[in-house]
Amino acid sequence: MVQAINRALAEALAEDPAVILLGEDIGAAGGPFGATRGLQQRFGPDRVRDTPISEAAIMGAAVGAALTGLRPVAEIMFMDFVTLAMDALVNQAAKARFMFGGQRGVPLVLRTPHGGGLSAGPQHSQCLEAWLCHVPGLKVVCPATPADAYALLRSAIADPDPVVVVENKALYAMKGEVPDAPEPIPIGRARIVRPGRDATIVAYGAAVHWATDAASLLAAEGIEAEVLDLRSLQPWDEAAVLESLSRTHRLVVAHEAVEAFGVGAEIAARMADAGFDELDGPILRVGAPFTPVPFARELEAAYRPDAARIAAAVRRTLD
Amino acid sequence: MTRMADPLALLRTMLLIREAEMALARLFADGEVPGFIHLSVGQEAVAAGVCSALGPQDSVASTHRGHGHAIARGVALDGFFAEVLGRASGVCGGRGGSMHVADLNRGMLGANGIVGAGAPIALGAALAHRIRGTGGVAVAFFGDGALAEGALHESLNLAAIWRLPLLLVCENNGWAEFSRSDTQVAATLSAWSAAYGVPHAEVDGNDAAAVAAAAAEAVEALRRGEGPRVLEARTHRWRGHFEGDPQRYRDAEDAARAAGHDPIARSRAALLAAGVAESALHAAEAEARDAVAAAIAGARAAPAAEWADARHGAYAPAES
Ligand SMILES: Cc1ncc(C[n+]2csc(CCOP(=O)(O)OP(=O)(O)O)c2C)c(N)n1
Ligand SMILES: [Mg+2]
Description:
The complex is a heterodimer. Chain A is an alpha/beta fold. Helix content of chain A is 39%, strand content 18%. In chain A, the strands form 2 sheets. A 7-stranded mixed beta sheet of chain A has the order 2-1-3-4-6-5-10, sandwiched between helices. In chain A, strands 7-9-8-11-12 form a 5-stranded mixed beta sheet, sandwiched between helices. By secondary structure, chain B is of the alpha/beta class. The mean pLDDT of chain B is 96. Thiamine diphosphate is lined by residues 64-65, 113-115, 142-146, 171, 173, 175-177, 181, 237, 241 of chain B.
């Protein structure tokens, strides 16, 4: 997936002189996860810019640069550190188009990795995307495959409004085909990963893969679960979820983030309304428990949602 | 050679700001201004002087006390008053109000409701000017209270290591909301600038000509690519932190002393001493009064802001 991200950044830099990259150790060092490897050599230190450890200024500068004719792509090393950039993101980037009466948008991208599985502990593993989905003016996407990581990042950079691209750390090493001439993926469009008629599992990021594993487990029991990858969280593809639900009549929403007050809660609430007549069982959520992400392998394994828990939720909604 | 600002033009700008803000004070007291407003009465010389050093390509990030910056930057008075009164014809369609007046085509990146937030935004504008090769510079205005905000330190550090064309202008009025700022900030701005290796100049913020000269000198250095500058203007906040502030924390003497430093009276006296006819000054005053009265009349007559226009304003319209 890292190579797909690298390719998207390289192509955007090559196509549009207004695109610049900003972040800690993204230049000569190639980025903490290697996503920007080789880009500074190719596009120069002006456009691929190493910053000091100043998340508030990185994000604020991205806002000012975006209002002054550039298309900055900022990287924040771990999503946990977005706390330090929240003012620029929430009070400035998200507000400018609206509060300045539509004079101009803020075409910036924030790339930031979330997720556990690496024993990175409570301050380097969080999935905080629901915070950002809650802010009018921001868009949020979260790819589950290299092809989607490429295409969604291209769409994010081309977008006239601020887009947060949440990348799952555990998926950086994932291998997968990116076509030579990939189809653009519009922000806000979900994808059916695996069709099925008995229940719909909506997921994003790493949870998409747990959901497909769950679908395989269930298939062995004669249950055909459909897996829908949201890809975009804000805006999210309500029509696609409703369409699937109206075929399967059962809905489970799965994500790595804490279950309470999460993206799944929003989807469940909307479908309990718009999909009320279609539902033949309770809408169930599968997410992390309401604690910080623990460090020790055994603890983190117990903490993270997985295929077994998703499969159990599907069985329960079919009960 | 440093370009000299026209002293009469500086006075005109200050008169316009004073007239506009005193009118806002009256409108606020009469309940015509929604929300709350922070006036810069007594501080006009800083806005007028600094903006006199800027060209149309330059960028300005302002503060919660930003009316003067907007007016000095040339934001049209009609759109300004309509915005502060929440009308559809406001520069921001009535969606922002006093604390968010922005005019991006004039490089006015907005007043800001968040203390210290303008500095990183101006930093980014300076970066964009550098990368795009516009020749432009960026200015961040901030108050002495904002010196306690981390974003300001991060921005000065970054501007210094990247040698960006950023002018940080501190409007030091001694107050951070209801507290003396010297009880809140351990280091002086000059020591602080020195620590980052950034040249710092202090100027009498009640002397528009002095501010203009100091700003022009700094802006020229920025345009020569010499890296960021800090300009600290000592000034006085005549009124409360916000309109309607009972100022229980401030003794009457302090407020009276503040009003003893009037940048407009000072500029007026200097012009008279230099041989400018009193009638020319009266004409400038009348002009400011008329312009403000016309803008207020226009704003009052303008239609109210419409929710239907604002409802989908958070994002660019979908391409069809
Ligand atoms: C981040 C943030 N904290 C607190 C406030 C509330 N507040 C508004 S203005 C102000 C004082 C600012 O003082 P200074 O920067 O000196 O500006 P002045 O009001 O003197 O012009 C405070 C505390 C705010 N708007 N933003
Ligand atoms: Mg102050």
